[in-house]
Amino acid sequence: MSNTILVAEDDIAVRKVIVELLEIEGHRVQEADDGEACLEALNDSAFDLLVLDLMMPRMDGFAVIPRIRQAELHTGKHIPILCMTGVYTRDFAANCYRLGGDAFVEKPFSRVALLGKIQELLELRRSTGDSGLRELALLDYAGTLTKFNGMEQVVRELLELFSQESRERIQKLLDAWQQGDLKEVRTQAHTLKSISGTIGAQRMSHYSGRLEDAAERGNREHVSNLVPLVRMEMDEVHQKIGEIL
Fold it and tell me: Long-range pairs for 32-40 at CB < 8 Å and ≥24 separation?
């Protein structure tokens, strides 16, 4: 399926490689050489995906992403953003996700890695609709209450149990990640996906599911990108639960 993709990258050689790879796959591609040009293109045209270099002149990717997400609050739309950088650390990747990026790839990248991430985001966009992941709730308390027939005490007890078990699961997940044990990472991610879904922590459940899938496929780079995100998402869920309880 052909998609329209915007590539924002200041390095001409890298940008041309990405464009060529995408056009070979049958996609329509528009180019931008800095952050300001990227925002102008997004304002003028509709795109199915943005490939965004985080380190650009005039306005870098870290400044671009919040502006895009802020604008989407008024439109209700969501463009998937694949972030790129040659300066990779786990905190760097986690910050990309925190600002609103949807996936991360390190430069220099392989053809398989780049196209794989792009395909994953495009498929996710088709499955979740134009509004995308940002429509998923941090904690859908009202929905969970409805699911349990309005029994507020039961839901509160469920949230307390979740708080206890999820902390244990997160610690086991982090230990397994540090030890390189992808089988255990998958096990803990699967459980976190399940228990998060039960209480209506929709984003947490989704990200845990992505982590489970990455661990099952043996994609260590993707696992390393997702673990910090899952941990930070869980911290936000715990904070929200504290406000409710």
Answer: 32/6, 32/7, 32/8, 33/8, 33/9, 34/8, 34/10, 34/58, 34/59, 35/8, 35/59, 35/60, 35/61, 35/63, 35/64, 37/8, 38/6, 38/8, 38/64, 39/64, 39/67, 39/68
